[in-house]
Write a structure and sequence with these properties.
The protein is an alpha+beta fold and 488 residues long. The protein has helices at residues 16-27, 52-60, 64-70, 111-124, 172-177, 244-254, 303-322, 331-356, 410-414, 475-486; strands spanning 9-12, 32-35, 49-50, 72-73, 77-80, 86-89, 107-108, 133-140, 145-151, 154-160, 162-165, 183-198, 205-208, 217-221, 228-234, 261-277, 282-283, 286-288, 294-295, 380-381, 399-402, 407-409, 419-424, 436-441, 447-448, 456-460, 466-471. The longest helix has 26 residues, at 331-356. The relative contact order is 0.13. The structure holds flavin-adenine dinucleotide.
Length: 488
């Protein structure tokens, strides 16, 4: 490996955020490098809940079926009482898909499997993360970023147009950018461990001592493996023994009688919970995505999902600017994603408080389907005009029919790196241009079935949000919008 090979985009960190960004850039044919200081991929299960909106993003990236095969729905929670009895509750909503929302329940997939599937997809585009390569320093001269890396092949310098810090909660990139990370330490520590055990059946997520923060613990069976993920609060201070013997003693202290035998520990960690949000997501040519930009407690399963969606928001913008779009487009990344993370911080800490009281219910608020970018400078519609679709909202799926009579899913038409322009009963709205697929919808169009008014134009962004809702008479505004996001 040539340590010093230059590139357009250097991604620092091959976790969920960095890998997602890499897959998106790879399918767009953008030149990038993806480095990680680890010698080999991360092996833990920690972020195991994939929310419906992320499943839609993963469908777009071509991996949702592989993820579904690698995972499963959440099992019921089995709440064990001190007297040896138990009650099963399904506190995570498992809802049937609808046409508009093909994924309505979170999937349980250990993070090591999600990341492996992302790497597999990346390999299909001819790329792989460069492990054992650490970003040690960088400087942004306004034209380029010069990054100093230390790797197997020695030290090297990578010159790139943009650097993306996807390097996790303790982000080196964020520190080096001197970006503040205000928030609070929640004065709570927890253990998370992937263990092989005897004594529990795999049909339920077992919870013991609910509502007692000193003794609470949960064992979640990880699909298609012999592992359980153990999660339990820890005293805020003091050493923790994460060996099999240490975890056995920890479990025995909370569940006397030796009902659970810990046979093996594959991965374990003790972590302090924080809720923090970076003051800025961008300084010059350097960006932050994922945990580097926001950290919150694991309650509600939001961290990995928010990280993946940061990457999906930034990927197409970086690619567009490299292809000639105005650089101001990149400012919309922070404008759109930082408020989402701020909301997430409140949600996850609120759920943590409920969990402390033994209430683990989570509903639609964690699915991320209702999040969007109304009010963003990229959301263009005419104030006061009423439409079924609103600029900034997630575009729902729809069942359409081709002019030849075949069924078509709207999401199949949206999938890929392009923009999609849907024009009600008329058109074309704009002259054909690279990167925009235009469909006429209506009796004389190529597709039927979407509830669009005659002359209504719906522009859907590459990340699946409605960018503009205009009419055919407003072609000029549509052309102007496209010039702002694509150049030309
Ligand atoms: C117990 C637990 C449960 C969780 N449950 C959920 C859940 O159910 N759902 C959910 O959405 N999220 C969950 N999360 C959160 C989720 O794991 C994180 O949000 C997610 O891993 C963030 O991904 P990331 O890519 O931003 O960062 P990371 O996964 O932390 O990846 C950062 C990468 O950067 C690399 N790196 C760091 N510094 C450098 C450097 N200088 N040079 C090169 N590489 C570097 C690291 O080696 C690492 O591989 C959970 C977390 C925990 C701890």
């Amino acid at each position: 490996m040539d340590v010093s090979r230059d590139t357009d985009i250097l991604i620092c960190g091959a976790g969920a955020a960095g890998l997602t960004l890499a897959v998106d850039l790879a399918r767009r044919g953008v030149s990038f490098r993806l480095i990680d200081r680890l010698e080999e991929p991360f092996a833990g299960s920690r972020g195991k809940g994939i929310q419906p909106r992320t499943l839609e993003m993963f469908e777009d990236l071509g991996i949702v079926d592989r993820l579904a095969a690698a995972g499963g729905f959440y099992p019921p929670q089995r709440v064990h009482r001190d007297d040896g009895t138990h009650e099963d509750v399904q506190d995570i909503t498992i809802a049937a898909p609808t046409v508009e929302e093909p994924y309505r329940s979170p999937l349980l997939v250990p993070q090591y499997r999600t990341e492996a599937i992302l790497r597999e997809r990346l390999a299909e585009w001819g790329h792989c993360p460069e492990y054992g390569t650490r970003l040690a320093a960088f400087a942004d001269d306004g034209e380029r970023v010069t990054a100093h890396v230390v790797g197997e092949g020695g030290e090297g310098v990578i010159r790139c147009r943009y650097l993306v810090g996807a390097d996790g909660g303790r982000s080196f990139v964020r520190h080096a950018m001197q970006v503040g990370f205000p928030g609070k330490t929640l004065r709570m520590r927890a253990m998370v461990a992937d263990i092989v055990l005897d004594g529990l059946d795999r049909g339920a997520w077992h919870r013991f001592n609910e509502g007692d923060m000193q003794r609470q613990m949960g064992f979640c069976p990880l699909p298609h493996s012999d592992l359980f993920q153990l999660q339990a609060p820890l005293p805020f201070e003091g050493d923790v023994d994460l060996s099999a013997g240490g975890i056995q003693a920890f479990v025995d202290a909370r569940l006397p009688g030796g009902a659970i035998r810990v046979r093996e520990v594959r991965w374990a960690s003790a972590y302090a919970m924080n809720a923090r949000l970076a003051d800025r997501y961008r300084v010059g040519r350097v960006f932050l995505v994922g945990d580097a930009a926001h950290i919150h407690p694991p309650t509600g399963g939001q961290g990995l999902n928010t990280s993946v969606q940061d990457a999906c928001n930034l990927g197409w913008k970086l690619a567009s600017v490299l292809a000639g779009a105005p650089a101001a487009l990149l400012d919309t990344y922070e404008e759109e994603r930082r408020p989402i993370a701020a909301g997430m911080l409140g949600l996850a800490t609120g759920l943590l408080e409920k969990a402390r009281q033994g209430d683990m219910r989570r509903g639609r608020e964690v699915h991320q389907l209702d999040l969007g970018y109304r009010g963003s400078s990229l959301s263009l519609d005419v104030p006061g005009r009423r439409h079924r679709f609103v600029a900034g909202d997630r575009m729902p799926d729809a069942l359409l029919r081709g002019a030849g009579g075949q069924e078509r899913r709207l999401f199949d038409l949206l999938a890929g790196p392009h923009w999609t322009l849907l024009v009600g009963d008329g058109g074309p709205a704009v002259a054909p241009r690279a990167g925009v697929r235009q469909w006429r919808i209506g009796p004389a169009g190529a597709l039927r079935g979407l509830d669009l008014e005659a002359g209504e134009c719906l522009l859907v962004r590459p990340d699946g949000y409605v960018g503009a809702v205009l009419s055919l008479e407003e072609r000029g505004r549509l052309e102007g919008y496209l010039a702002g996001v694509m150049g030309g």
